[in-house]
Specification:
The chain is mainly alpha-helical and 129 residues long. It contains seven helices and two strands, in the order ααααββααα. Strands 1-2 form a two-stranded antiparallel sheet. The longest helix is centred in the N-terminal third of the chain and has 15 residues. The radius of gyration is 18 Å and the shape is elongated.
């Protein structure tokens, strides 16, 4: 309680400096920021599993740090089975994805989304060379 009150008081006294510091940290740590967001969402939905930034880097390396779906630039981390549909936050449910693929997939099941895109699941399951 006391530490929280001190931190809050410090924040209120130095609000602009604190916000600038947070903005710098966010800009310098995009993967950690994504990890925190993913953890926050998975906790809210009581999703099992935990995929840290290091584990996601390992998953992305399997696809050559490219989108697992189209081979584009890796921007986002996709849940193959969306959290909103009961998916987990285990690394086995995670794929690197470009912003476009992740946004268009949204919370659709992978098979449905692949059919909409005209893609074959067999091509997606295997990592790119």
């Amino acid at each position: 309680e006391e530490a929280h009150a001190r931190d809050r008081e410090n924040y209120l006294k130095n609000k602009e400096a604190c916000l600038a510091s947070a903005k710098r940290w966010n800009a310098n740590n995009p993967r950690k920021l994504a990890e925190y967001a993913r953890r926050r969402k998975s906790r809210k939905l009581n999703a099992p599993g935990d995929c840290t930034a290091d584990l996601m880097l390992a998953r992305a390396s399997m696809w050559g740090f490219r989108c697992a779906y189209c081979g584009g630039h890796w921007d986002d981390d996709d849940h193959v089975i969306p959290l909103s549909r009961g998916g987990s936050n285990f690394p086995s449910n995670m794929r690197p994805a470009c912003e476009s693929c992740n946004a268009s997939k949204h919370n659709k099941p992978l098979g449905v989304w692949l059919k909409q895109k005209g893609l074959t699941p067999v091509l997606i399951v295997r990592p790119l060379p």
